[in-house]
Amino acid sequence: MLTLYGLPHSLYTAKARAYLRKQGIAYVEVPPSDRRFADHVVPIIGRGIVPVVELPDGTIIQDTVDIIDHFERTGPVKWSAYPADPVIRSLAHLFELYAVVGLTRHAMHYRWSYLKDQEKFLTLAFASGGDEAGAQAVMGRMQSYLPMLGVNEDTIPKIEQSFEELLDALDAHLARHGYLLGSQPSIGDYALFGPLYAHLGRDPVPLAKMQTRAPRVFRWTERMHAPDLDLVEYEDRGGGFARPEELLGTLGPVLSQIAEEILPDLRDRLAFLRGYVAEGKAEPGTPVTAKPHQRIIGEVETSFRGVPYRGGVQPYVFFLWQRLIAAAETPEVIEVFKNHGLDPLVDCELPIRVERRDHVEMWG
Ligand SMILES: N[C@@H](CCC(=O)N[C@@H](CS)C(=O)NCC(=O)O)C(=O)O
Fold it and tell me: Do 246 and 310 share a structural domain?
């Protein structure tokens, strides 16, 4: 039997778990406090991070992209997460990028800025499989990430406005389609499910907002976690991705919102990376950071919805971004991205590749 090391409240575990359930892959979820995780898994992956999948033959896979891609390659896959159409596939990659560059901020804000209102719920979650002292330590570490993610007094009103606009736009889109890109989930759905379920669709404060303001988004979180396609309220229940022209009407506002929110971040981080590479600091074939648990290579002045903040530069973001650029290979993709102000994301070159090898990111 396959083991999924993860936790109910973990953002990235939710992404991997939803994929396993949808494909009908049997697993047992085990918390990272389990002895085998510390004794066997951490030495292999080099850091304490979840989710990790351990296959029955002992193979260890870390990173949700690698986990999904493993099963896409080897099966069994009931509903592939990669759409064939280049436009739809590129949109899936865009959502994958937005989940990390954009929605991590919302997820972390709603979890930690409302700690007082959610304390019992969160303390229980973080203590699961361990003890309360350990829980407090991890909770403290998670809160320490907030400034780097751009969560501060000035950005919080913008983050909340953004969450409400996103809920409204997604709710309207899901009135027509069961999933972001049609009648089956893509890598984009799995990626958004991380923040939109594990934090925003589960922690008491944002969950209440989601259920009252955007019931169809809440239903999508149920659908994403179901073992079938769970399209009970739609006429088309057979699966499959839609055609671009069937999606873009209601997806348009979501795409414009993504452009507004992530372009400044990515432009400033790309400028940083160009300088970093020009100074010879990114040596091909070496890990992106000295220690695998370090996530950032520096800090930049950037902005969220016009509000300046100083944020960390994560090489992982370039790993996801280069996947999007590779998918956006046809003029039709460029055209759709251009129509929503997203063309700077696909009509550009990154100065270096970020690969994943031996469970860590490396300069390519
Ligand atoms: N890129 C990784 C990210 C995984 C990740 O950030 N996991 C979080 C939990 S949701 C974690 O283990 N964090 C540990 C820490 O930051 O100390 C993936 O896609 O699997």
Answer: yes
